[in-house]
């Protein structure tokens, strides 16, 4: 039991305030004007008077205590149930020109290790007030439909798998990439695996990331506005061609970016009726299961 929510949770955790969320999803508590929210022992600000609860792509199925503090400071308690998601697996043999990303030299390995250290420092996000509303803005002027690739395990060969914790959109080379919300650039650099990359902290623990850019138009410490150009579409790093890779971390949890680009009412909510909850669960259950027989590396690291 976390100190955040207190012993009173035991009396109400399995009452009416229950929401079921798949791995990589986001739960919502609507119907009560919220000031602050709580999960995982963390307390953070509500977004436009609504509480959201992110679930990591690899969170173990089970239950978590959640809290909502209303505008008068009264605490409301509930339960978030994590449901297993079956993500797709994709065979993606790399062309010979990208062999260096499979058979990594000592020099490149040391470089990638150093970059992982820099990335780890920013993925948790800041604890300041949210600088965003939902839905988030589109990261490109025209955003084609993404393949259902969030959570996919990409098989490059028998010995190399990569967990794809973002979404790829087939946006053409050189097109502008836009910030999905206001924020501060916390990391902008050329990385071995992700190529030219930009990480933006939007407050309230939300961080967006854009990989494989052709060029970067911002630098560390820059303040950006929603819709501001931050770079151009490219295919740098371990990429088979130009595209937009968008990733999101919220409270350090890897979540499906497409969920926050859509209307928030589509997210599973504590206030859903039984029929609404079942419909949202069924809508999310459409992926083919993945096979696991090789080490998996997170594509964000």
Rounded mean pLDDT is 86
How many β-strand runs? 21
CATH topology of the largest domain: Glucose Permease (Domain IIA)
CATH architecture of the largest domain: Distorted Sandwich
The tally of structural domains comes to 2
Q: Could you say which structural class the secondary elements and strand pairing correspond to?
A: mainly beta
| Residue share in β-strands | 25-35%
CATH homologous superfamily name of the largest domain? Answer: Glucose Permease (Domain IIA)
Task: Give the biggest beta sheet.
Answer: 7 strands, antiparallel
Q: Can you describe what's shown?
A:
With 301 residues, the protein is mostly beta strands. It folds into two domains: 9-85 and 265-284, Sandwich (Immunoglobulin-like); 89-262 and 291-298, Glucose Permease (Domain IIA) (Distorted Sandwich), CATH 2.70.70. It is 12% helix and 35% strand. It has four helices and 21 strands. The protein has helices at residues 9-12, 106-120, 257-261, 274-284; strands spanning 18-22, 26-29, 34-39, 42-45, 51-54, 62-70, 75-83, 89-91, 153-157, 160-163, 166-169, 176-178, 183-191, 195-201, 206-213, 215-216, 223-224, 229-232, 244-250, 253-255, 296-298. Strands 11, 13, 14, 15, 17, 19 and 20 form a seven-stranded antiparallel β-sheet that branches. A five-stranded mixed β-sheet has the order 1-7-6-3-4. Strands 8-9-10-21 form a four-stranded mixed β-sheet, with no helix packed on it. The two termini are 32 Å apart. The model is unreliable at 1-14 and 286-298 (pLDDT under 50).
């Amino acid at each position: 039991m976390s100190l955040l929510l207190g012993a009173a949770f035991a009396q109400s955790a399995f009452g009416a305030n229950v929401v079921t969320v798949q791995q990589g999803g986001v739960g919502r508590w609507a119907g009560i004007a919220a000031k602050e929210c709580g999960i995982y022992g963390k307390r953070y600000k509500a977004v436009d008077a609504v509480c959201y609860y992110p679930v990591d792509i690899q969170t173990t199925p089970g239950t978590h205590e959640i809290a909502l503090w209303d505008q008068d400071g009264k605490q409301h308690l509930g339960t978030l149930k994590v449901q297993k998601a079956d993500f797709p697996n994709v065979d993606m043999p790399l062309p010979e020109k990208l062999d260096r990303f499979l058979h990594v030299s000592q020099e490149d390995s040391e470089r990638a290790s150093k970059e992982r250290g820099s990335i780890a420092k920013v993925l948790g996000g800041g604890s300041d007030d949210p600088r965003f509303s939902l839905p988030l803005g589109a990261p490109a002027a025209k955003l084609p439909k993404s393949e259902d690739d969030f959570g996919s395990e990409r098989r490059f060969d028998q010995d190399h798998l990569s967990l794809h914790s973002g979404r790829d959109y087939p946006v053409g080379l050189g097109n502008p990439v836009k910030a999905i919300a206001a924020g501060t650039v916390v990391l902008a650099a050329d990385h071995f695996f992700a190529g030219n990359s930009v990480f933006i902290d939007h407050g309230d623990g939300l961080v967006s990331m854009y990989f494989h850019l052709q060029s970067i138009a911002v630098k560390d410490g820059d303040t950006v506005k929603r819709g501001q150009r931050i770079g151009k579409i490219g295919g740098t790093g371990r990429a088979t061609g130009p595209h937009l890779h968008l990733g999101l971390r919220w409270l350090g949890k890897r979540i499906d970016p497409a969920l926050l680009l859509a209307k928030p009412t589509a997210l599973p909510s504590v206030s859903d009726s039984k029929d609404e909850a079942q419909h949202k669960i069924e809508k999310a259950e459409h992926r083919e299961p993945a096979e696991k027989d090789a080490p998996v590396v997170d594509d964000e690291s």
